[in-house]
Structure formats: structure tokens, C-alpha cells
Amino acid sequence: MQTYPSKLLELAVNELAKLPGIGRKTALRMALHLLKRNLADVEALGTSVIKMRSEIIYCTECRNISDQELCAICANPRRDRSVICVVEDIRDVMAIENTGQYSGVYHVLGGIISPMNGIGPNELHIDTLINRLPGGVKEIILALPTTIEGDTTNFYLFRKFAGFNLVLTTIARGISIGDELEHTDEVTLGRSILNRTPYESVIKNK
Amino acid sequence: MQTYPSKLLELAVNELAKLPGIGRKTALRMALHLLKRNLADVEALGTSVIKMRSEIIYCTECRNISDQELCAICANPRRDRSVICVVEDIRDVMAIENTGQYSGVYHVLGGIISPMNGIGPNELHIDTLINRLPGGVKEIILALPTTIEGDTTNFYLFRKFAGFNLVLTTIARGISIGDELEHTDEVTLGRSILNRTPYESVIKNK
Asked: Which residue in chain A is spatially nearest to B97 when comparing CA positions?
């Protein structure tokens, strides 16, 4: 067991080591780095994480992280509110927004159904999604991971949506642009043949 | 450029990304992890780093990190104050202390001479080291890195020590215990032959 020359240092290392992917050695390197920085810089770090945790709110509509009651996407009148893209967490929203290809709105589940990790449907924002459906929603795009948990969640949602008059789609899975066929795994390649796209729509989207 | 759904999140990511070795993706993962933790946990992290930076002091004797004016090592009456081990930073103190093999005291330079990085002798705690010498110091152990910068610093100190009646040593460099000769680099192997150790002293130290 490492002994630290200072209780204050040890305490900071203990806290930093609780961050994901950070071991005690890295935490010590971070703490010593912070000791060399200005007090104002360290205060900026410390207060920014506390302020974020205490003041951030979640959009009442889509459960995205937000500074207001409605997030910037839900509050934007130019977004198509008849299409909802269902994602696992806010990183997926950020990734899709970065493409600039999507003009609908989102719904952040906050996770996926995973009995192994004790996450059932009640831990996710599914009820709030169902509540949004009567508001003129025409299409739901499922953009969850292609894992057993993702498939389970997709199927759970599929059954929940029964009775609503809407189109249910999933984002296209296939070979990445620029990838070669011989280096693609069989499952992806097989699915890309089964779910082949009419060439006309490819030209149109160019 | 990534757009964040919340200014508070963006600010926290910006600050976390200033930590050494942390890119923006990792910083975002950390921030989202913190959002899932209790407010009390996040406050513990934030305040621990601020408190460490603002309250930690450096031992007036050896410049080690400390909670008191004299660090625990310098304040310990059982430590041999006639032997000073000179190290680059406090991680070296912690590493040597962990061996349980050293009963002298330390002096933390706070770096090594590195003109490339704009670090000259005046940026290091060399004057405070020289001031300690008249207090009955008999031996200085140089435990700096075996780099050009380390060698430069060693030589600078060697000249500064001229006129003081003391033994100057460096920690032994050689083949790690358990390592095989054929896998050892030539410089280390060559030096381990030049600086060979009398067998009697090996038996004695067993």
C-alpha cells in the first residue's frame, strides 16, 4: 500500500481514482499536475464539475441533457417533431447531430434493458416516450446498439408501440463507407446483402 | 467541432480535458459518469482537488509535499539527517520510501535542468539544498534519472558541492533482479560490469 506524504494529496488521489478508467498511478500524476497549476485553474476544474452536477437538468420532452426545461433541439421550431430517434444516451445524440443529416427530434432512454446489470424497462425513460406518441408522431427510428441488450430493448419497444399508427425503422447497418468487403465481418456483410438499398435512393442521397 | 447540449457540460469537459493524458472524448465520458453519481460524491471530488491545491505546503527542509511545515520524514527523529537523497519529484520519494531500505532524508529538486523546457538551476530547489549542507551532512545520494538532463543536473550539483567535505554517490544502475542477461540492453549490461559489486557486500545485504 502506497503511503502519501500528505493527507490532502491522498484524499485528492482517492477521489480522482474513482473516475472511470483512472487508476491510482494516473490519479497521482493528475494530482501532482494540479499542484503545479494556478489555484484559479484548479478552482475552475473543481467548481465546473460540481456546478454541472448540481445545475444540469434533463429536457422534460426528450430527456437529453439541457440547461433549460426544453433542450435546444426540442425548442427548435425547425425540427420535425413527427420523427423521434430513440438512443441510449446523450453521446449518441451528439454523434448524430454532428452528421448534420437528421432534422427530427430525439428520445434518450438513459440506458438499455440489461437484466445482468439490473436495468429493467422501469429504469429507462420509456413511459415518457410512450406519452409523446399521441402528439402527431409518425415515425420512430430505433438507433440502439446491435447487442443482445439493444435487440431486447428494440423488441420491448416494438411491443409497446403496438396500437399506435406509426412507422418503426432502425438505422441502417452495413459496411462502412470506404471499407473493403474482404475485411468485413460475416454478420455485417450478410446483413448488408439482405437489407440491400435500391440504387436510385443512393444516387438521390448523394 | 463537437457541439454540447449544455454549456455546463461543455465547461466541465473543457476543464477535465486539461488533465494530463485526457482527451475530449475521455473527458466527456468522465463528465457523463459524474452526472450519474451523487451530488455529494461530485462535491467530494471537486473540493478535494481545490483543498489540496490551496492548503498543501512544502516541507521547508526538503521541499517534499507536506501538511505541516516539516514533512513526516524530516520531523522523524529516527531518520539519519547526515545522508540526503536528491530526487526529481515527490513520486521518487514515495517510490524509495516504499522499499523500506532507506533511513536518511531527502531533497526534492522539483525538476531537473532542462534548457529545452526552459528549466535552469534557478527554477530548482538547489539553493535550499546547498544551505542544508553545513548541518552535518556526510553523504549526498544522487537519484536523478539517467537522461542527458539528469546527467547535466548531476554534474551541476557535483560542482556546487565542491568545497564541502562529503561523499557523493549515485544509486546503483544495473540489471533488474530476475532479469536475464541476454534481454538486457547493452548500456545497462556494460555499466553493470564496470560498476560491479564486491560479492561480500551482496551477501551482507541479503
From this structure: A3
